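Follow-up to my post from last week.
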Amino acid sequence: MKEFILIFRHEDGHKVASPEQIQIWMQQTRDWMGGIAAQNKLVGGNGLPFDEAKVVGHNNLVTNGPFGEIKETIGGYIIVKADAIDEAVEFAKGCPVLQGEGNTVEVRKIAKGDGLH
Amino acid sequence: MEQKELIPHLFRTEFSKITTVLSKLFGIKHIEIAEDIAGDTFLSAFETWSFKGIPENPTAWLYTVAKNKAKNYLQRNQTFREKVAPHLSYTSSPSQEIEVDLSDRNITDSQLQMLFAICHPSISAEAQIALALRILCGFGIDEIAAAFLTNKETINKRLFRAKEKLKQEKMPIEFPGEAEIDKRLEPVLRTLYLFFNEGYYSESHDAILRKDLCLEAMRLTYLLIENDRTDQPAVNALFALMCFHSSRFDARTNENGEIILYQEQDETLWNQELITRGIYFMKEAARGSEISKYHWEAGIAYWLTVKTDTKEKWEDVLQLYNRLLITEYSPIAALNRTYAFSKVYGKAAGITEAEKLNLTNNHFYYTLLGELYTGIDDTRAKINFENALSLAKTKTDKQVIQAKIDKTMGG
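User reply:
Got it. Predicted complex:
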């Protein structure tokens, strides 16, 4: 079975939603992850808090960010086990992040030391 | 206590203490000698007491005899004297007389250290539990065999192999270093958890034996709480979990030792004192930021002590199962999570979620589907219950499922 990373891209929730709304999203996210874990297909995952984020660029130039009003910032990820990309995509379709217009979940295969990568 | 009750009682508690202290003194390599000396001590007690009557302080009597037998053994056995005695942990020189320390403090310390030695990943979980029952809890071979629903020969073999492994690994009977504690504690907790479950979910009809197993698992877990070095949040969470489950002891079996299902239990028989203790240790477990799978399980077990059917309860239970599964997968947690899911989001959503699990060799999977289809599609409910029946192995499980089939047909 292969492993895929599901990368969530969205705005900083704290800027657009109330703490109560964030609670609801958290619960939905855990329901979604719990459903994948119940199939023994969850490898792991994490949220990536937007505060204190830095970008290190060429010549070690450090900037705050990477956020403006963009919706393409990585807010978290999970890693799942799936037979093929299609199954991983089916998991991604249930991600609560997708309730926000413009938000995306990027599905990428994880390279393993199998000599193919 | 009459002699015929006193000796088995003392055997349970003191045999293990003497064996553990002597094993610690001699080293794991000589664990059988420690067991023999402890066994001999009881033989002497049986002979002497039936003739002279029970001494005023039987425990002190046993300790004195055990100490003497240990010393005699060391003097008699030349190999032992030359090869082992010089290395004994608390003799400073070979010429000094050996000291067998049977103080409460040394007994407790030795038991904890032995627990760490036994719960080593190189030994199978089943063998770890058997060893703990034998060496730390003083269970007889026949009792261990009854608990595992197997015969004495199997248990003897299992114990023999496990001891050989301990010797091979030259397992030290000592406290893990400060930096290692968390890592070493993990397999210990896992074994104690399985140990408790072995008693709680055992198919044995001997209700007293099952309860004893659970109580012993709790006693050993409590030893860890009593020691500052091992009094970690995960240990408290595990103990809370055990308190919550054991609160139903008196309600979950009938006079024939048969299991009474949760839904049919008389709640007034649930032990409120144990529930209160569970809540206390759950609060203790909340110290610090470390969260283990036992925290989630204790939370779920807490809700089992509250027999309401509110939305709030099931939402909380679902979240706890989600977190438990995210931490560690198990088929039974997956099935229970799906049941909680159906309680929150309805049976139809529950069916979709359940069918993804695809646990087609598990009778609980079909029982769950049967439950979810009941009232929605009774024909499918019946087919699922029948699948469950064909997979169920124990008499209790079969009876429970048959009752569900009859109910579906009747309804």
